[in-house]
Amino acid sequence: MSNENSNQKLPKHYVSIGRRYEKYGDVLGDLGRVVKELGPIDDKTSQLIQLAASAAIRSEGAVHSHARRAIDFGASSDEIYQSILLLTSTIGFPNVAAVISWIDDLLED
């Protein structure tokens, strides 16, 4: 979390926690980096997976963050929406509809 470039994509309160508790933020940043280096999943797919997990826990901030990151790694809006629509039988239509509205807000900006 100490990397300023990655902080630009995090919610302000996440960045604030990382600054207040620098060691903690560094460990979280290291954890994310190490986990991504463990296997063959590319960055775009990784972000789509994390987007789906964020949708499943109904975290609007994380949905925005991972959708933005997925786009930065080359995901199309169709891929973003499909990754959410695929969750319908898992998290239900009302949750999918809410997440789509959050993504609409993001993509309309």
Lay out the secondary structure.
Elements: H1 4-7, H2 12-20, H3 22-37, H4 43-56, H5 60-72, H6 77-85, H7 88-91, H8 93-108
Describe the structure.
There is one protein chain. The chain has 109 residues and is mainly alpha-helical. The chain folds into two domains: 4-37; 43-108, AhpD-like (Up-down Bundle), CATH 1.20.1290.10. Helix content is 78%, strand content 0%. The protein is built from eight helices and no strands. It has helices at residues 4-7, 12-20, 22-37, 43-56, 60-72, 77-85, 88-91, 93-108. It is globular and about 40 Å long. It starts with a helix and ends with a helix. Residues 1-7 have low confidence and may be disordered.
The largest pleated sheet is described as: none
Number of helices: 8
Shape: globular
Number of strands: 0
Q: Determine the N-to-C terminus distance.
A: 25 Å
Please state the CA-atom Rg, rounded to the nearest Å: 14 Å
| Category from helices, strands and their pairing | mainly alpha
| Average pLDDT reading | 90
Helicity, in percent? Answer: over 70%
Kindly provide the name of the CATH class of the largest domain. Mainly Alpha
| Percent strand | under 5%
Order of helices and strands: HHHHHHHH
Q: What do we call the CATH topology of the largest domain?
A: AhpD-like
Q: What is the level-2 CATH architecture name of the largest domain?
A: Up-down Bundle
Determine the CATH superfamily of the largest domain.
AhpD-like
How many structural domains are formed by the residues?
Answer: 2
Instruction: Give the low-confidence spans.
Output: 1-7
